[in-house]
Amino acid sequence: MKRNKKLSVLLREWHRDLGYLVIGITIIYSLSGIILSVRDLHLFEKEYVLTAKIEKSLQEERLKDKIILAFDKNEEKKELPTHVLKKSVLNDFELLEDNPELIIYQISRKKDMKVVTYYKNSGELIYSISAYPTFINVLVNAHKSSSEDKWAYLALAYSVILFFLAISAIFMVKGKYGFRQRGIYITLAGVALVLLFLYL
Fold it and tell me: How many Cβ atoms sit within 10 Å of the Cβ of residue 183?
């Protein structure tokens, strides 16, 4: 009995201290998780714009090469954040609109991410790139880290600590509100909730 009590106290102390340790990490991962969950809505993205000028009234078949040349050494690209510059590559041209005033191309498989507009009467080109600002992009990349990334070590440690916090909580509360009486049903409800969303 005394040994069980000591184990319970020890688990409480570890649970408390590790809980304090991961508060900041949890806040960061929670925020980046929210951003990733609504990424299709483009709520936290910023529009980065590059401009150029080419010949007027070009036909669609000649236009793609002219667009690539116009933005290949565009001076405005120097002002783009590094992660946006990497996305600025012109590829996957998909014609969205062609009317007497303008031609619009989508330059990405993801809708509304990269769009080039050519105004026929003026020869003006506008290249619009939607991307996260740098400080948000860092959070998102941390959340999506792979085994080759330095963030993976923090993510692994965080996962192990969360697992410990979950398991240690089972042994911390006794009586009618303990795991065996009440906690097991709430835990099973949590598992069922995850399975429900997985297979809906």
Answer: 15
Residue 15: pLDDT above 50?
Answer: yes
Rg of the chain taking only CA atoms, in angstroms = 26
Residue 97 β-bridge partners: 104
Q: How far apart are CA 197 and CA 128, in angstroms?
A: 36
Residue 3: the pLDDT is: 53
CB atoms within 10 A of CB 184: 12
Start-to-end CA distance of the chain, whole Å, equals 46
> Could you report the per-residue pLDDT of 141-161, keeping only the tens digit for each?
878 777 777 778 888 888 898
Q: Does the pLDDT at position 184 exceed 90?
A: no
Residue 67, number of CB atoms within 10 A of its CB: 22
Burial class, 107, CB count within 10 angstroms (exposed 0-12 / middle 13-18 / buried 19+): buried
DSSP assignment, residue 54?
-
**CA 172 – CA 164 distance, rounded (Å):** 12
Q: Cα–Cα distance between 140 and 33 in angstroms, integer?
A: 8
Which residues face 188 on adjacent strands?
Answer: none
